[in-house]
Amino acid sequence: MNAARLTPIPAASSHPTYPAVDIATLRAWHPYDIAESLERAEMSPLDIIEVLLRIGNHKALDAFQHLGIETQQACLEAGNTQTMLRFIENMDPDDRVDLLKKVDTDIREAMMPLIAQAERNEIRRLWHYAEGTAGAVMTTEYAFFPAAITVANALERLRLQAPDKETIYYIYITDADRHLQGMISLRRLIMSKPQTALADVMQTNVIAVRHDMQVEAVAEIISKYDFLALPVVDGEDRLLGIITVDDVIDIIRAENTEDFQRISAVVPFEEQYFKRPLTRLFWNRFCWLAILLFTSILSTAMMEWNLALLQQMVALAFFIPMVTGTCGNAGTQSATMVVRALALGEVFPRDYWRVFYRELLMGLALGLSLGFMAYFRVLLQDHNVMIGFIVAVALLATLLTANLAGALIPLVLRRLNLDPALTAGPFIATIIDAVGITIYFQIAVLLIKIF
Amino acid sequence: MNAARLTPIPAASSHPTYPAVDIATLRAWHPYDIAESLERAEMSPLDIIEVLLRIGNHKALDAFQHLGIETQQACLEAGNTQTMLRFIENMDPDDRVDLLKKVDTDIREAMMPLIAQAERNEIRRLWHYAEGTAGAVMTTEYAFFPAAITVANALERLRLQAPDKETIYYIYITDADRHLQGMISLRRLIMSKPQTALADVMQTNVIAVRHDMQVEAVAEIISKYDFLALPVVDGEDRLLGIITVDDVIDIIRAENTEDFQRISAVVPFEEQYFKRPLTRLFWNRFCWLAILLFTSILSTAMMEWNLALLQQMVALAFFIPMVTGTCGNAGTQSATMVVRALALGEVFPRDYWRVFYRELLMGLALGLSLGFMAYFRVLLQDHNVMIGFIVAVALLATLLTANLAGALIPLVLRRLNLDPALTAGPFIATIIDAVGITIYFQIAVLLIKIF
Predict the structure, then answer these.
(1) CATH superfamily of B296-450
(2) In this complex, is the C-beta atom of B372 within 8 Å of any C-beta atom belonging to chain A?
(3) Does pTM top 0.90 for this prediction?
(4) Where are the beta strands (DSSP E) in A147-285?
(5) What is the CATH number that goes with domain B137-245?
(6) Which of B174, B311, B337, B400 to mutate to test the interface with A (most CBs of A within 10 A)?
(7) How much is the pLDDT for A17?
(8) Contact A374 B293 (CB under 8 A)
(9) Percent of chain A beyond pLDDT 70?
């Protein structure tokens, strides 16, 4: 026997695109890689279907599942109904419902009667779960047995059912009405004596989630307890489906993308970068930027208000970007740390007092040291002790405010059940700008009056 | 038989902390929850050890593993060597090495001779793998068999080995020198005929990674192919260990935290929020903010340069925060989208031309529409057509620049093997501020000359 041929992983950035690859090569690839290369080749939907049909094995059916949902939709709307039926029937139940919800109503209604009875019933069952809930991402292809059968019997049945199940590593024990009674891992099952009843070896202490739980919370539970799957039940503890760990990874990634986009004031997009329609993206970005532009009215108003002072001491204007910029950065720092700590469960809203104390201390330390630096920086450039003093004190006061606001606003948002990630965004930064300029001029007026 | 007792998941935010919970209650909890409540109670290391000893079952040993590494270290340095030995020996090999690397040298040297021979050899084997590589996070507790044994024999051996293995759902086939020859999933194994040799049912097309691969790349492979585990090999394809999917979830989370921190100019911290030492955090934040403060010298210099113009038309200063703020936001938007698309493999550096074209179009559309809005905004407040015109044109030019810079700089950084996430950070924003102010005044001077 030869040594195993360790499959070289196609380096993502050097992915050959379809025209350069022949069908025989594609046939040897993992379905995920087939899908990725089809996506990147930017072929027409009909060409994609053509290539998948020419590959012609089960991998081609699986590759369809790995295509982006917009590509799937385009294929479904362009392709022959009978051909597409095979792809549709092979899909995971939850992905299939997502796709059918997206597709043109006429096409869906033409296709539904042709879908096999069992799959059709499943589609109906999954149809009403709201997006973003456990019910909408669960799969119904799980292994379940009654408690009365023996371990040997369960293993025998598993052998037959295995090809149709998403996972057989966790087996669920239900009564005749599908009430969840327990679970047993395949590891435990093969370690148990063959003639024992499942009832005697199963674990009855099962962590399950309701179908209406948010997927982010489900992901949290699976990742914290290192589960491979989590059962989903209805209000009466009847088993509805399971959520597997690979879905959880996708959920965590999508959640992080959302947070990143929210931080930069882009309403989250589902599509891949190059697939996002430019007009929708334009409106999305335009609206945010327009709101931010109008928020900056505050900063402008503050300067107009102090027109006389500015005309008298125009150098004051020079240091506004420095003060607002530095304080905006400090606020973003504390906001990001608290937002992330909230997401990871390291901090809770009730910790506000501890967070306040910590960030007050930090804000004072940063404000004093940076204020000191700013003072000398102004002297170096401007030789004006008064302006140096104004800038330093304004920096200290603004930084303290920004640092505390950045840290505490996420806690308030979380308490109000809003997304704390909004804080780290430009909206707050724009407000901090205005507050910074206000403080700046207040302190300028005050100090000029005193001296 | 009663319906299963579905374990209520302790709501994270209402986690009772230790003093409020008696030992009997803790005994019923999942090790993860025990660890979490001990962490939150902020007990001394000796008290933590005391509680774990009083719980006294295997869950207590596992709970130690779920404590943060700083807490583990504190316990190890405070506790009795003999007691701590039990906790150490129960740890996963990779976590154990991480902890021993962190702990005081004297304590490590006192403990090493007491650790059982097998574990000690393992520690030596894992010691030299660099942090952040596959070798450093892999576990060596995997199931492996020779190719010649039968399916029935393999199942029999698995039954005995299962308790000591991290996972038995993927089984690896190796020769006498541990060269990886193939793998078989437990699902496939129990579906195979008992008398077949493993050689005939195993999959020889195995995706494996080298021990020096970065963990982020490993996470990418596992999540893309939906694997439960991935084998790690040396330069000669000898099996060294495996990386399991639950580790991958932790890697993805850590990676995202790092990105978030980098975006907000905080050097990534490993510790939990409340555990970060204030002095180190201060220096970390101070250095970044000081650098940014000095970068803003550019903005100030630009304004001084145009002192005469500003004194003549002081209202020009009013709209600087609006122009730089809006353009900074637009740049952050495009940067975040491209950074995320790079991370998810939707965009590659060689796509620069497509990205350029897309963001040029978008920048023009946004610049024209927001410039138009800004024009009316200035008229409303200032009744000065000239300033309105200057602001609108400056906004268009700066936004176009910021949008393109935000989108293209991440591609350049990636090409240079630097982290693209740096782009979305305040460093670039500060530079955009200066560039924006420069463009603003250039256009003001130009337009005033023309009219």
Answers:
(1) SLC41 divalent cation transporters, integral membrane domain (1.10.357.20)
(2) no
(3) no
(4) 167-174, 180-185, 209-210, 229-233, 239-244
(5) 3.10.580.10
(6) B337
(7) 42
(8) yes
(9) 91
